[in-house]
Every structure is written in structure tokens, then in C-alpha cells.
Amino acid sequence: MWFKNLRIYSFTQPFSWTEESVSTLEERRFSPCARSEPSSVGWIPPLGAEDGPLTHEIGSFVLLCLKKEEKVMPSSTVKAELEARKEAYEQENARPMPRKEQQSLKEDIMHQMLPQAFSKYAVTWAILDTQAQLMYVDSSSATKAEELTAVLRSCLGSLPVKPWGGDHPGHHVYTDWVKQQAAPSGFELGFDAELRGERDDDSVVRFKNHDLTTDEVALHLSHGKQVTQLGMNWQDRIQFTLTDDYALKRIQFGDIVKEQRDDSNAESRAEQLDLDFSLMAGEFAELIQALQQTLEIQPQVES
User: Fold this and answer.
1) Which residue in 295, 284, 68, 18 sits closest to 184, CA to CA?
2) CA neighbours closer than 13 Å in the CB half-sphere of residue 75
3) Has keyword Cytoplasm (predicted)?
4) Do 168 and 175 meet the contact criterion of CB atoms below 8 Å apart?
5) Over 70: is that where the pLDDT of 302 sits?
6) Cα–Cα distance between 149 and 154 in angstroms, integer?
7) What is the Rg, in whole angstroms, of the alpha carbon atoms belonging to the chain?
8) CA–CA gap between residue 27 and residue 44 (Å, rounded)
9) What is the pLDDT of residues 215-269, one digit of tens each?
10) Which of 170, 182, 192 is nearest to 296 (CA)?
11) Which residues contact 140 (CB under 8 A, 6 or more apart)?
């Protein structure tokens, strides 16, 4: 359950979580795909019990988990069946099958194969922080994060959020940090970075486990490259990569946090999940507050 990525959203209007909010999720409790359904998406209990509550709350934090099932059909199988039916059509009608009919036939084949298709499952976690008026989604993909917000919006009727971040892409700030060879107070430069030219077709240079204060890095910056991803260390508690659109990727918790977890003495899996959630959410709240001050990101709603 420990998040590895963060897509952060700011509430643009005051938002609260109520018992009524919880009840609306029941309408989208996850159920497996029917035989003829290509996909199914819905909420599952965060603490694991199949018939358990669909949220877990501690203080101002609300934990949610969205599950998605997709039927997977190998494209080669669909293509082989389509080719066989096209050939039979051409032999019977003495002419090629029209393109429009090919597309319709392909859709029919996929529908007929659905009951035998394999299922692929994925879960996406999210935390609502009603005090900070923020939402954290554990996803490196903006599309996947938006899928979760869309499902939550359909349940609640309204979800006034926008992606969290500054007024300009992050590289304007990250590049200065690396040029100055110093991160802001409370942070340290990590050892990973991505540098891109100003034009879309320019080259990309990626550094991994590399000292970012070397002449090699400085040379790329002097040639006009911008730092579009930057590894950071916050108080030896959390290491992460900050992206140009203000997402946090490759999150790793430091020994300080791990030791706190090891000292928890949980007696059951549910209790351990509860303690992990409390610890992780608290760390994220402090980290994002520090980043907001550092990056001069103004909250959309006063907490």
C-alpha cells in the first residue's frame, strides 16, 4: 500500500468528506466483468476485507482504492480470425470485403471472444487530505490518475480539482537549483536527472546515480538544456523524482520512516495497514507543504 508515485490535485472549492460521500461509493463497488463486458471498474475496501467499508479514515485523511478489470485478447488471435473470415467472404462474393465491413466484423469477433478472454487487473490508490484540500493519487500516469478522479466525480456528482503545481513548468526552477548546485532549505539534490533541449526534437540526457554538481552536467546546461526531472531528498525521510508537471515519481522512504514503521508492533494485517496509512499520509502532508513553500505554489482553497 505504500505509494510509489504521486499525482497531486488541488481542490478549487471547499471540500468535505461526509457519511453521504461514503454511501455514494457503494453504487460503484467493484464487481467482476460479466461474460460479455470488456472491462469493469469500481471501488474496493482499502483494508482488504471483501465486504468491508470502501474508505478508511484517519483524522483528515481518507484512503480509497479503485480496481479495474480488463479483458485481454491477443491482437494476433483477433487478426487471424479476421483474415480467415475475410478470405471466406472473398471466395463467396468474388470481391474483397469493404473496409467498413471489416471494421464491423472485427468488433463482432472481439465481442464473441470476450467470454474466453483473460482478465488483467489493476488497482489505484488515492488519499484525500481534507485539511490541506489536496488529493494524492498513486500513479505515474496522468491518464490513470484522471480515470480515478473521473470515477470519484461520477459518484459524488462533483469533484472540483485541478492538477497541483506552479504557474510554469517545473524546469524553470529545477534548472536553477542544479546550476547553483544547491537545493532549497530542507531538501538536497539527488543523483538522478533528466535534461532536455528547449525544442521538442532536441536530444535528451538522463543521469542515474550521478553527481549532479559535476562539470559534465554543467556543460549540458551551458548548451541550453533544461532540467525536466530531478531527484530530490527531503530531510532523509523521502527520496523522489520531481517531474516537469509537478508529479512525484520513484518515491522511496528513508530509514527514519522505515524505523518508525518497524517499531509499530502491529498485531494483524488490518492494523498494519492502518498504521502504514497513518504514517505515510502524515509524511506526505508535511512533504507537500514544504514543496508548496519552496515552489511558491499557492493553495486554491485556504485550509
Assistant:
1) 295
2) 0
3) yes
4) no
5) no
6) 9
7) 24
8) 12
9) 999 999 999 999 999 999 999 999 999 999 999 999 999 999 999 888 877 778 8
10) 170
11) 4, 5, 7, 247, 249
Q: How far is CA 210 from the centre of its chain?
A: 26
Q: In 10 A of CB 111, how many CB atoms?
A: 11
Amino acid at residue number 143: T
Take residue 106 and report the three cell numbers written for it.
Answer: 472485427
| Cell numbers describing residue 276 | 502504514
- Nearest CA to 140 among 248, 252, 277, 9? 248
Residue type, 189: L
Q: Which three cell numbers stand for residue 23?
A: 454511501
- Rounded Cα gap, residues 10 and 296, in angstroms: 14
Identity of residue 13? Q
Three-state DSSP at 18 gives coil
> What is the pLDDT, as a whole number, of residue 200?
63
Q: At what angle do helices 99-113 and 75-93 cross, to 10 degrees?
A: 130
Place of cell 530542507: 186
The pLDDT-based confidence of 108 (bands split at 50, 70, 90) is confident
